[in-house]
Amino acid sequence: MTYTARCHDPCVLSGETNLLPSTRSPDSQTENLDETYRHTITVHGREYQQYSIDNEISFQPVDRDEANRLKLQNKVFNKIFDNRLIFPRNCEPQRVLDCGHGAGSWAIQVAEEFPECEVIGVDISPHMIPDGDDDDFDVGENLEFQVDDLNRPFTFPPRYFDLVNSRMMATGIDGSRWSSYIQDIKRVLKPGGWVQLVEIYFNVQSDNGSLTEKHALRQWSTKLMSSVEDVKDLRVGTRLRDLLLAAGLKEVESTMIPVPLCEWSSEPRMRDIGKASRKITRHLLTAVALYPLTQRLHMSHDEFQQLIDQAQKEAENPSLKTYFPLYVAIGRKPS
């Protein structure tokens, strides 16, 4: 799979860019990907993108285990959203932007379902996309992946996309960036174009109120929040509606979906979602928190693993009825 990097013209010309020097394609707004973006470091057996760690962009792994976790997470989202990839009704996009593509699952599905649509996925990491030999990776030429830091102003031209998808970006977007991030999305949308946002609030809740501050799951949430609160807003899911309205978007709709961590629900559909969530919860608890807790809060790895083990037991306990709040919002650019 070929990757390119977005080109930030003024910075490239002045040499004041954190996109390292590379050869720019004369007929595009991208550059050949500098190998620096591929450099990784290993922390407690997990691989992280060096560039992303150094610039406090993301603290999540970029290894094959993380790619597999994101693929499974995408399957859970498919269950939650009844396999709907695009939420606004009667939206048949010709050009789509996927912000923070991760392992590429959503972008690949959209490219397959809409073969006449141009799909561009952007992420700071090029590590988790399957290569051409992967059996699950078989799409046409309508899909392209690019590397860029979405904390920087978008370099796409105005009125370019029919739909912008932004999912699980709270761990990647700077806390102070969200208002300008939404404004950037609005700028690159065509008049009448849509944005859809999906964010998990990593503060574990209990449907029957039985979860207390003494539980490991609640301690996990509290420690995770505090470990990155100087650079990230992990509560942004609760503000998605307000952010869209403040940016001047119309037809704004939002909802909160409780995602059960195991199959405790008596409702068959939610019980099925809980069963799927149970399979990946341990991986999520570790992936999201390993670097922040051990490197930013300086928790020992043994202490971290004990917390994860206890948190997983609680997540699998149906009597606690635990869930993650999942916030979803859509908005339309005025036409």
Automatic annotation (TrEMBL):
Q: Name one Pfam family in it.
A: Methyltransf_25
Highest taxon of the lineage:
Eukaryota
Do you know which InterPro entries this protein is assigned to? Methyltransf_25, SAM-dependent_MTases_sf
Q: A Gene Ontology MF term for this entry? A: methyltransferase activity
All copies of the Methyltransferase domain together span 96-193
PANTHER family in alphabetical order: 2-METHOXY-6-POLYPRENYL-1,4-BENZOQUINOL METHYLASE, MITOCHONDRIAL, METHYLTRANSFERASE
The name this protein carries in UniProt is Methyltransferase domain-containing protein
Q: Which species is this UniProt entry from? A: Aspergillus tubingensis (strain CBS 134.48)
